[in-house]
Amino acid sequence: MSSNGKDKVSFTLDGETVTVDAGETLLDACRCAGRPEVPTLCHDDRLDPYGGCRMCLVELDGAPRPVPACKTRAADGMVVRSQGEKVERVRRTMVEMLLSEHHDDVGVKPNELQRYATEFGVEAPPVRFERRDAWEDRNRFIGYNPGACILCDRCVRYCDEVMQCNALEHVGQGSTALMQPTDGKSFLDTSCELCGGCVSTCPTGALYEKQAGGLAEADCDKTRTVCTFCGVGCVIDLNTSDGKVVKVTAETGVGPNDGHLCNKGRFAFEFIHHPERLKTPLVRGEDGKLHETDWETALDRVAAGLRKVADEHGPETVGFLASSRCTNEDVYALQKLARGVLGTNNVHSCAAT
Fold first, then answer.
1. 0.90 exceeded by pTM
2. Looking at the domain 8-83, which fold is it?
């Protein structure tokens, strides 16, 4: 038992002794030990270990064949090799096999599989399965091109394990196997919540954001910020091209959301560049219509109106509602205004902050 209360195991990794928490996988151990990247395609840190793509195979003394690092738990006395000619040859073969069902002229590029193909010097597979037909769907946000899919099932497992809505399924076997919305329906006719989590976890761009027009994250400039739609405070990256937001992504392991986003956080960004977005304050004139004005005039009008109601009917007849898009500091300032200036405790935020 270690000083932090967790059991530890020690084993040999690439000729060095490493110590990790009991229960850690060999993939986790390689990362903690700062080893060169162990490639993965079916693995997502937010999902249960799967071991489907076999890209993360490592040598383990005493095992009859290489074992998947993402599913194999570290144990005392193990002797593991994560690098070397043998595992590199195996990984190169796995890339060739996966490329046989991936058509690189469809889907969003660049993608993880193509990156590994470049790293391992794999130009083209010896055979290639027949391309699956394009999937036409009437939803506005999620596109799917089966020709780029490698059936890693990350999207299906994300939908099952994280969203628990079972809106995607893996059907068929061999070259006819297919990932599809449940029962082959439109995304809109399943239990799909259009959160886009399947898009975020897809390693080949087979699932993609329609609004992005085929642009991958690597094609865009990124600006890190916080989502404004509710009080959770999800950390997001605005992906821009030519100064315009084309997609919203989130990095796994960052912020309270850990890479997860709801449908609003991922897809509801069109208001940013909407032609009807208000850019100046509006006040209602004597003609009953709204007219543009400056902030000083608008704030004076608000202050006068609030004071008039409070003076005539009492401060408890006034209430303050804070938008969930406000920061904690904004909400704090608002309640100080309500209690200290108007003298009312009628303050509420839908974010419950």
1. no
2. Ubiquitin-like (UB roll) (3.10.20)
